[in-house]
């Protein structure tokens, strides 16, 4: 009897590439590119740690971060992967919180997507400078607590934090909206020049604010609201009677 499957004995099914494998390989390659760019950025900036408190040096460091990201195509998922990668490493360079946070901020500002969500709840580090110079038309949603300088020099974008913020929240804000779900630390709104800063919980200490609007809960704390003239007059009248 002739085997009906004889003709298929030497048949080999063509190997098919599983789309998920290709996607994962591509994401891994992108992450490696991002890590190399971050390494180059930090090696240059770690020699000048004083830049953290110097405005000119801070701007220069941010420009460096933007430049090393040029030519790398990355998605929102890659931004969160980068956060997890930096959070999980114990390398000395990665432990420099300020450069790390600034690099992540540069990624958010250079991403093709205008709406970015980062889940920070499971991360040990509290990245500073998230939302730094976020431009108009972009929204950054941060789940969990953040470090110092969140929303620094905000340029019209919208930053929402579901948890607490560290010190100097909204420092130097030019425009836009920064919303903190719980409380903020010292020097909140320091040097703020415009925009709206909303703290749903408590403000530990208000900084030297120049302009803009700040709320603590439902109360506007800057500029402080003044009682209407009619209310003042009636109050004065009650005191004299």
UniProtKB/TrEMBL annotation:
It comes from Candidatus Entotheonella gemina. Residues 217-241 are annotated as: Disordered. InterPro entries: Glu_synth_asu_C_sf. Residues 223-234 have a biased composition (Low complexity). GO terms for molecular function: oxidoreductase activity. Signal peptide: none annotated. This is Glutamate synthase alpha subunit C-terminal domain-containing protein. PANTHER family: TUNGSTEN FORMYLMETHANOFURAN DEHYDROGENASE, SUBUNIT C (FWDC) (PTHR39673), TUNGSTEN-CONTAINING FORMYLMETHANOFURAN DEHYDROGENASE 2 SUBUNIT C (PTHR39673:SF5).
């Amino acid at each position: 009897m002739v085997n009906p499957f004889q003709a298929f004995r030497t048949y080999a099914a063509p190997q098919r590439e599983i789309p998920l494998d290709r996607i994962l390989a591509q994401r891994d390659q992108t992450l490696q590119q991002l890590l190399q760019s971050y390494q180059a950025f930090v090696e240059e900036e770690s020699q000048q740690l004083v830049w953290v408190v110097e405005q000119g040096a801070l701007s220069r460091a941010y420009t460096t971060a933007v430049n090393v990201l040029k030519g790398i195509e990355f998605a929102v998922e890659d931004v969160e992967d980068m956060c997890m990668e930096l959070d999980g490493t114990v390398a000395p360079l990665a432990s420099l919180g300020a450069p790390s946070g600034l690099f992540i901020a540069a990624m958010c500002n250079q991403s093709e997507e205008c709406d970015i969500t980062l889940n920070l709840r499971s991360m040990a580090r509290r990245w500073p400078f998230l939302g730094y110079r976020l431009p108009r038309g972009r929204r950054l949603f941060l789940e969990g607590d953040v470090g110092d300088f969140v929303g620094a020099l905000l340029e019209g974008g919208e930053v929402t934090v579901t948890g607490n913020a560290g010190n100097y929240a909204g420092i130097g804000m030019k425009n836009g909206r920064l919303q903190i779900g719980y409380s903020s630390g010292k020097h909140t709104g320091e040097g703020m020049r415009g925009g709206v800063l909303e703290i749903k919980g408590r403000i530990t200490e208000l900084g030297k604010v120049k302009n803009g609007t700040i709320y603590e809960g439902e109360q506007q704390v800057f500029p402080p609201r003044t009682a209407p003239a009619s209310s003042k007059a009636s109050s004065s009248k009650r005191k004299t009677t």
